Amino acid sequence: METVGGSSRSRWEELREIVKLVVAIGSIFDTNGVNIRFLNCKDRYTIKDPDEINRLFAGEPKGYTPLVRSVREILKLPVTAANSDKKLLLFIATDGYPTDANGVPNLSEFEHVMRNERKSDTTYVSFLMCTDDQECVDYLSNFSRTMANIDVTGDFNTERMNIRRERGAKFPFSKGDYITKVLVGAISREKVPRNEPDNANNS
User: Fold this and answer.
1) Which of 3, 152, 194, 202 fits a disulfide with 144 by CB distance 3.0 to 4.6 angstroms?
2) Domain range holding 67?
3) pLDDT along the chain (203 residues), means of 10
4) What are the strands of the beta sheet with 123-129, ordered from one edge?
5) CATH number for the domain including 43?
């Protein structure tokens, strides 16, 4: 398992801590809790207590990256419909190129789902990027630039480095800024520091 920024923590462990924060804050706004599902597991978990995340992350990640199947199932929920008076904030943590259940790459199909099947005014998507693989970085960055209400966040050190490359070496970027980006980057791009040029398109 790859480590993060030279630290002893793996990306899986880093992701676990981010999910804990999402649950802690999400449960404040929705007392029903936060729904969590792993790509290669049919079970869905409704979590209210962040400490429950330790149990879910006890094993190591395995399997392929069937994003098309998983996102399509989520898009069947009533809250994602065009006429819904509610909004869905979907966090997708991924470390690889999208594939079908047999491991065959299917990026074009996943892009169709995100661009044409997802209703961008009701379904906001925050990708948590758990890899430095350039192909994965490139396709997610393209989604963020060209689709509405999508944001992509890497690990803290990578985000800080990218933001300071765009904004200057002394541009302030704290852990609090990082958490804010994870939570609201897909909802309000104006409220978080950007790691893109100011003229980046997200429409």
Assistant:
1) 152
2) 11-190
3) 49 86 89 91 91 92 91 93 88 90 95 97 93 90 95 91 91 91 84 55 45
4) 88-94, 123-129, 150-153
5) 3.40.50
